[in-house]
Specification:
178 residues; mainly alpha; 0% strand
């Protein structure tokens, strides 16, 4: 690999991991309560979700798809990304309704908090999946350790998919589910 490609790869990896960590930290600090900062919090959350859905996740997905070194995490990555996108769509829709009507009580804060918490867990899993592959690429871990971790992540994805369906369908948090 020439220096430009190496620099570009390293730069992309750094951007992805740093941005992912910032998104996770923002979600973990988000406090949607009926206070004087309620609308500011909603607008900030809306901005983060909009950026994540329209810029960050598609860019990261393209990077993973275009780099053959990441082929083996494609299934886990896309499974987690799909759940995140669905949850972000639910939050975004609820926030838009609340902001459009300028009526605080339209937003079910308990529902939004549970979605934010679950989304943060999904993003953390996504971070671990990507980081583990990066560590293998840099030979920080060996193939056996990687295989063990990757198998664990596959199990985690499966369990989180079950939790996702419970959250979305059993609790009917998505307005599209009746």
């Amino acid at each position: 690999m020439d220096d430009f490609m190496t620099d570009n790869y390293e730069s992309s990896i750094n951007e992805i991991t740093q941005t992912l960590n910032h998104i996770i930290n923002f979600l973990n600090k988000t406090d949607i309560n009926y206070t004087e900062d309620f609308f500011d919090e909603c607008i900030n959350l809306y901005g983060l979700i909009n950026y994540s859905r329209n810029q960050f996740l598609p860019k990261t997905s393209s990077f993973i798809t275009d780099n053959h070194a990441f082929n083996d995490i494609f299934f886990n990555y896309t499974s987690v990304e799909s759940m995140i996108l669905d949850l972000f769509l639910i939050i975004e829709s609820d926030i838009i309704k609340t902001l459009d009507k300028n009526y605080v009580d339209l937003l079910n804060t308990d529902k939004i908090k549970s979605i934010i918490t679950f989304s943060s867990k999904l993003l953390d899993l996504l971070n671990k999946i990507i980081d583990t592959r990066i560590r293998l690429n840099k030979q920080i871990i060996d193939q056996n350790e990687y295989a063990k971790l990757n198998k664990q992540f596959t199990n985690d994805v499966f369990n989180m998919q079950n939790d996702f369906y419970k959250l979305v369908y059993d609790e009917k948090i998505d307005f599209r589910v009746k």
